[in-house]
Every structure is written in C-alpha cells, then in structure tokens.
Amino acid sequence: MTTERVLKPVECQSAARIQEAIDSLGPTGGRVVLPALDLVLDRGLELRSRVELAGQGLGTVLRKAAGRDYPLSGYHNYGMYDVPLRDPATGLSPGMTVSVLDDQRGGFYSTFARISWVDGNWVGMDRGLCADYSEKSNPRLTLAFPMIFGHDIQGAAVRDLVLDGNRVQNEAAMDGCRGGCVYFARSHGIDVAGVVQRDYAGEGLSFQMCSQVRIRGCSFLGNTGNGMHPGAGSTGVLFDGNTAFGNEKAGFYFCVRANHITIRRCRFEGNGGPGVSIGRRDCHNLIEDSRMLANNGPGLLVRATPVPTEVHSCLVRRCEIAGNNPGPGSAQVRVEADAHDLIFEDNTLRGLSGGIGLMISDQAHRIWLGRNTVADCAVDASGQGIARDRPEFSCGAEAATPAAFRHLFTDGIDSGDGVGRNRRNP
Questions:
Q1: Which of 64, 120, 162, 408 reaches 20 to 30 Å from 321, CA-CA?
Q2: What angle do CA 87, 88, 89 make, to 5 degrees?
Q3: What is the pLDDT of residue 1?
C-alpha cells in the first residue's frame, strides 16, 4: 500500500516543512498531498525516488521567493564544497538552494547546490563547484533555483499545482542545463501532469540525461527562456496535451541528443523564438497533431547542425503551422544545413504575406513531403533535397528499443522500462 501524507495548512507553512514531509517517506516513497494554499518558497523542493507531490489544481500556488546576488570575494576553485562571500551571508541559512556562476561561462559550468552550513562570510554546499570561478568575471552566489527538482531519482511525479516564478523579483536567470522552474537530471520514470507554470527567470521545464519522462496536460507560460527543454541525451519521452505560450525563447527546444521523443496534441503560440526548435543529434523524434502559431521565429526550425551531428529520422504529421516568423524571408518551417530523412505529411502551413511555407537548405536531402496543405506561402527547396520515396525509420517515445537508452547507463543496458540498470542510480 502506498504511503500517503495529506498535509494540513499548518503542516506546510514553509518550503522546509514540505521538504520534511517529502523526506519522511523514506526509500519506499509515497505521496505528499498539499492543500489549497499560496506559499512563497525560499528554496526548491527536492523530490526523492518513488515520491509523488500533488496539489489541488489551481488552488495550490507555490511562488518563488525574491532573488538576490552575493558576490564572491575573488577567485574560487573547482571541486570545493564552499565559497567565500565578499559581504556577510545575510539571509542565507542551511537547507536553502543556490547557484554559483560567473559571467564567463554557463551551461554545466554553473553550480546548483543546497547550503549545508554558514560561517561568517563562508557558505558550505552539498555539491562541489563545477568550475573555477574567476575574480575578473563577476563570480557570485545567487538565489536562483528550480522550484521543484530531482537528481538521480526514479519513479517520481508532480501533479496538479501552480508554480509562479515571480520573475519581476528575480533578475538572475537559472541556466537551462543546471535548472529550470521544474528540473530533473539523471532521473528516470518521471511523470509531470496538470502543472501550470509561469513567469520564471529561465526555462519553464528542463531535464537533462533523463529517460521515460511523461509531461501531460501542463502549461509553460511567460518565461525568460524556453518553455520546454529536454536535453543532454534524454530519451524515450512523451509530451502530450501541453501548451507553451509567451516564452521569450522557443516554445520547445530540443537540446543535444534528445532522441525518441514524442510531441502529441501540444500547442506552441506567441513565443519569442521558434515554436519548436530541433538541432544537434536530435533524431528519431515524432511531432504530431500539434499547433505552432504566431511565434516570432519559424513554427518549426531544424537548426544548422552539420555532419556528423545532423538532424535525421524525424516525422512531423497532422500539424497546423501558421502565422509564424513575421518579416522578410519568413518561413513557417525552416530546415537548415545537412538534415536528412525527414517526413512532413498531412500538415497545414499558412504563411504571412510574401512569406515561405517550407524552406529547405541546399545541403538537406531525402526530405519527404506528402499531402501537405500550403496556403498564402510557397515551398522553397531544390529538387535534389526532396525525396522520391518516403524514408523508412522508427521514431517517437513508443519506438525506443532498449538499445536507445544505453548512452544513459553505466553498463549500457536498459531493463525494458526505460529505468535501466545503472549502478550509479539506486
């Protein structure tokens, strides 16, 4: 029988109290149910394996606390579990979640950690620094953190709540590789459903090196980064019935080697970049029955990724792609560089005045076009790029075989459920 903790309002008056409830379930996991509330989080909530965190839908609102930067007192080096601050650590306490970064590098060179101790101007952390931080590059500790996250976990879930990133009080953005409003790393069998996420300084949703993730019936709205960002080899993922609206970058951003992913019945509208952007080593993906509307970039962009990292073996079908990419040379769908073995069929493309529906680079090849409806726009493609015969390949989360996951596991073996046998992940 699954252990369930239904919290009363008095039991969840702080993020620390909710974290205690999550941690109390132990290794067997269980379910933590939040009541209707409106709570400011001074730290991220960290999920454990086999733990589900659920709310009461729109009645459960979690808001990110205001951000603040703490400059470091100069250079500090890779691997250390502490940092020296220039000024006293006012407002910091053990258990809070923070990021360490500088202006020189981002990505996986930034550090996300939980504070373990505070001693004068020194702050200890539960993870070693991921880089050397230069005194010439504005090194700092900042209160940028994912609101809900998990590292090295299995079988966790988030359901039925609202996450408000309070971006007006959070100038420091979370880097998408190390964080997002909802974030997972090296985690497997994750389910996110019925979550309304909005106004975060960074990505709405990011996960890296994950498998068998399910994102269903969620909204990612008004973030400074991308709406959804699966990356770093994430494989076997389903996005079903989600919305990305008004994000400053792409609605959906496939990062490096995001493979065997299905996007189904999703809507990407009014984003500052492309509706959907797909690039380096992002192969065997399926996009179907979705809408890409009024985005500032192409509705669908296949980024310029040359051999041997080119995009291939992707299927886009029964999608509406319309009113995107205003301005000269606009395109509803843009295929760049050396992409090949792509199928576009049964889609509806509607352009803007003088625009292009489908633009295919001269280097792309074996692009199959079947039964698409193109209105108020044209197709710009050389004859050599268009396939005479429909390419044959498997794609989407449902088509992922055990071998598709082997880059994520230490012994190169998947158990068949996408969780695998990984000696580093309990």
A1: 162
A2: 115
A3: 63
Residue 412: its pLDDT value, please?
56
Q: Is 47 helix (H, G, I), strand (E, B) or coil?
A: coil
Q: Residue 8 burial by CB count (10 A; 0-12/13-18/19+): exposed, middle or buried?
A: exposed
Taking alpha carbons only, the member of 399, 377, 409, 285 closest to residue 339 is: 285
Name the stretches of the chain with pLDDT < 70.
Answer: 1, 354, 382-383, 411-426
Integer Cα distance of 152 and 135 in angstroms: 32
Residue where the block lists tokens 């699954």: 2
* pTM for the predicted model, two decimal places: 0.94
Tens of pLDDT, residue by residue over 32-41, are: 999 999 999 9
**Token pair for residue 94?**
């053990």
Please compute, for residue 376, the number of CA atoms within 13 A of its CA located in the half-sphere on the CB side: 12
Give the CA angle between residues 289, 243, 262 to the nearest 5°: 45
> For residue 3, what pLDDT is reported?
93
- The helix, strand and coil proportions of the chain, stated in percent and rounded to the nearest 5, come to 10, 40, 55
User: What does the DSSP assignment read for 10-59?
Assistant: GG-SSHHHHHHHHHTT-TT-EEEE--SEEEEESSPEEP-TTEEEE--GGG
Entry field: residues in the chain = 426
- Tell me the C-alpha to C-alpha distance, in Å, between residue 398 and each of 156, 238, 284, 291, 313: 20, 8, 11, 21, 14
For residue 242, what is the DSSP state? -
Which of 99, 226, 84, 111 has its CA nearest to residue 170? 99
Longest dimension (CA), the chain: 70
Rounded CA separation 128/79 (Å) = 4
CA 179-185-191 angle, to 5 degrees, is 100
Name the 3-class secondary structure at 406: helix
Q: Distance of CA 409 to CAs 127, 148, 186, Å?
A: 22, 24, 9
In degrees rounded to 5, what are phi and psi of residue 212?
50, 55
In terms of C-beta density within 10 A (0-12 exposed, 13-18 middle, 19 or more buried), how is residue 384 classed?
Answer: exposed
Q: Which two tokens stand for residue 415?
A: 């158990």
